Amino acid sequence: MKKQTIIPESLDIIGNACRDYLKKPDKNLSIEVWSNIAETDVIPVHYLFRPFKEMPPLEQEALKQCRGKVLDIGAGAGSHALWLQEQDFDVTALEISPGCCEVMQKRGVKNILQEDFFALAEEDKYDTLLMLMNGIGIVGTTDRLKDFFNMARKILKPGGQILVDSSDLRYLFLQDDGSILINLNDSYYGEVEYRMSYKGQKGRRFPWLFIDDQLLEYHAEKNGFRFERIAEGEHFDYLARLTEAT
């Protein structure tokens, strides 16, 4: 396991929760999630350990669309990487959380890279960049999409692809009469601030990006990538393929 970026254990909320679940599986374990746009929510920790058959259809389809050498970005507890390994893919699990990396190693993920996506070295090239569970959220804001596409271009092999799912958060602004009320003078409505806590331990606040398909297509084309919608979910979510334009 390659290890570089360090997160203090006290701030490694998801990693600590996954460690606990691996030691003693308990479906009552949950991570509290605060955001600036909705009520406090929870992530059941067992959901991060789900097998392929329990994954949402968009995730299952994304995994089936993988090809060649795969970089699983934001790999979490390693559920996607493990399934790809079982299908004989050469997959590397990229994760910034030291706790999650430890959990993946114990679960049998072979290739683990503990690093921030934006700090990756360029010596490794991939055929597929996999970004599930709204993995493009790591970009944080639309202003950073240019940096994202620049990094993707550096680490993709010729003909490579990015598989990404995301959601259009406009449903949060639905009015009783069916209209959508969004203040266009504010920042993009899909730019969210989050903070997680687990067993009284609070992490840092961090930006997270949910991006609608039309805006992602616009930024992809602006940065030299083609956008292809592969599938749509039941609740304003979608799966897309991004490939470098030639």
Q: Taking strands numbered 1, 2, ... along the chain, how are they ordered across the largest sheet? A: 1-6-5-4-7-8-13-12
Structural class: alpha/beta
**CATH topology-level fold name of one domain:** Rossmann fold
CATH-wise, what's the superfamily of one domain?
Vaccinia Virus protein VP39
- The number of helical segments is 6
Determine Rg (CA atoms, Å): 18 Å
Order of helices and strands: EHEEHEHEHEEHEEEEHEE
Pfam family, one: Methyltransf_25
InterPro entries: Methyltransf_25 (IPR041698), SAM-dependent_MTases_sf (IPR029063)
Keywords: Methyltransferase, Transferase
GO molecular function: methyltransferase activity
Descriptive account of the structure:
The protein has 246 residues and is of the alpha/beta class. It has a domain at 54-188 and 213-244: Rossmann fold (3-Layer(aba) Sandwich), CATH 3.40.50. Helices cover 24% and strands 30% of the residues. It has helices spanning 13-23, 57-65, 79-86, 98-107, 145-155, 213-222; strands spanning 2-3, 30-35, 41-44, 70-73, 91-95, 111-114, 126-131, 156-167, 191-198, 201-202, 206-209, 225-232, 237-244. The strands form 2 sheets. Strands 1-6-5-4-7-8-13-12 form an 8-stranded mixed β-sheet, with helices on both faces. Strand 4, helix 3 and strand 5 form a beta-alpha-beta unit. Helix 1 packs parallel to helix 4. The chain is globular. The model has no long low-confidence stretch (mean pLDDT 93). GO terms for molecular function: methyltransferase activity. Residues 70-160 form the Methyltransferase domain.
